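Help! Submission page says 'invalid entity' but I think these are all valid:
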Amino acid sequence: MGGPKPPEAEANFMSTRRDFLTASIAGATGALLAPRLSSAAPKSMSVVHESSFIKSFDDFFVKQLAPAYEKQTGIKINYEPVSVGSLLTRLTTIVETKSGPEITATGLNWPWLFDPSLVDVTDIATETGKNLGGWYETVTEAVVINKKWKALPWGNIGQLEVYRTDWFKQAGVNKFPDNWEDLLAAGRLLKKAGHPFGFELGHGFGDNHGWLYPLLWSYGGREVDKDGKTVLLDSSETAAAVDFCRRFYKETMFEDVLGWTDVNNNKAFFGEQISCTNNASSILVVGKRDFPEIAKVTDHALNPNGPKGRYHMLNPQSHAILTHAPDQAAAKAFVKWLYDDKQLSAWLTAGDAYYAPFLHSYDNHPMWNPEPRYIPYKESLKTSRLPGWPGPPSHAMSESVAKYVVVDMFAKACRGDATKDVIATAVAQLKQIYKAK
Amino acid sequence: MAVGPASIARPAPAVDRRVSPRRVLEREGAFSWIMLAPGVLFLLAFVAYPFFYGIYLSLQDRPVAKPGLFVGLANFVNLAHDAVFWQVTRNTFLYVAVTTVLKLLGGLGMALVMNQAFRARNIVRALLLLPFIVPTILSTIAWMWIFDPTFSVINWTLVNTGLVAKGFSWLGNATLAMVAIIIVNTWRGIPFYGISILAGLQTISPDLYEAAAIDGASINQRFWHVTMPIIKPILIIVTMFSVIFTFADFQIVYALTHGGPANATQVFVTYAYDLGMSAGQLGMGAAAALTMLPALILLIIGLTLYLRRE
């Protein structure tokens, strides 16, 4: 019917219009926000890694793990490999700009460097340890900071002795020497036979520290004490290590090793120029692929014993979650999934035993069976330490490594400088680095 | 209809105070700034900001991933007490001085030859630019092989021609390692000098040489009294740029020796990189990088004053 509407109808109408507008605005806002709200989980996440020497390790992640996770959760996982030796720079950039991949690989003492930017993953570490036989004690010094796990190790890249079995036998050395003095004696014979040793003494990033720190430790030398403040390098033990290194260099090697970086010993080994070096298992891996005849006569051994023990370099490859990750829970869920036995075991197998895992239930993992020559890398875990040990992992530790304090101390002695002079220079540097008096 | 004076008088032009884009563009000052703006913004974003941020960092104790703490000049004082830093300073100045002289002489010689008329001149000119065109890191890897003790073509030649009994350890010996990086930098830098000086040589009128020859000037005299005065400003500018580039040369040293053996080839930029990136000491790294600034400023001021006087 016509005629004026009753006041309540007018009110109802006004109410309806207001409701309509409100509903419209809410609807529009909802529509705008809908994609974000309905997909609270990220569409994708990225993992940055140093490109592996083992191609199948990277391939397994890209072709198996990432698609499997996407199928399960709808989250795409991007794998961003960077060249060997450049991950630290990349990680520095990521952390400083607070942008980029949510998950990163780490090595050495990096979790300590980037501690404030890393998410606590103690819960995952605890559960993984419980499920997989517990963690090696040695690795905790690298990844546990103030009782919090800041990274989850998947395996160590060890630095061991790599040698030519045929040339050693020809020189009458049928078993790899167990201590440094015996290795020196073997080296003399091999150099005389035209097969010198080649241990890096230059400014590389791994193969120099990989044997010089263990050499120092095995003679009882230490850079700094556990307090991280008392410099201990000026000792008779250090002097003995330096003197040994000079003889080892002069009597078994050739001058060029003083300028070597990490590629040189690999190149020299495959160029059949050297009979022994210190390296990761990558030489054998590449040998099997590209130099099968050399690979047949290549083997590994633990670092030699010194008067104060046997040591190796700890370089735990781990995963850490960055605090700038928009969805830390999603990143943790992925890492937790990755460290489940089903995934981790298969991935390590794809890695061809290049990475020695820090979980005891993998001590007898089938990955060790196809190639027993990799087993020494597993055996080295118990005697592996971070550079700077027994000092606490810190920025000072990294500064000492970056300044090649220990490497150059040995290198200068090898080129002919006096033992006391090279130690004095190194001590002065360490005192400045560790702010010691 | 009577027409009053007011109606026939033209109305006084009203002052139009509206600012239209067209008017702005017509003002030369404003137009210049608009044209300059992209360049200025680019310089501010990619040169000025990083530069001042570098100064800001150098005054801080600033470990990576942690907030900085203002420490004034403490980083510079620390560097002054660091024996390696002084070795780095000596290395850098030696490296820059020797390579600059070699590149200047080599580039001048190259330009004088390229300025002559001969068959396939243009192709030769293009080929001579190759060292400058090839990415530094690639050419440095090639040089790494050239200096390799086993595969070195230099050593092979020296040994097989009987000049030496045993090849040199180019990168293992402190002196030879410095020689090696100087050789590579010189090889890479000569074309820059050569092509720049060649451009200068081509502006010299042949009449000047003819007149000098008629006056009895020898080749030497023509070079010193005709060529040199004309190309001197170019030499100064090119040298200035080259010194700046060489001070900041990172790739050759990093790829070839990484500062070894025992810091024998460590220079400012590689040391700064090691401190800032490898050690995570961003403040110290920035300070190490900035220490080359005074030398560069003095050089630039000196050469600019010389140019203005000339």
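Support: the input was valid. A stray whitespace character was the problem, and the output above is from the cleaned input. The first helix of chain B runs from residue 5 to 8.
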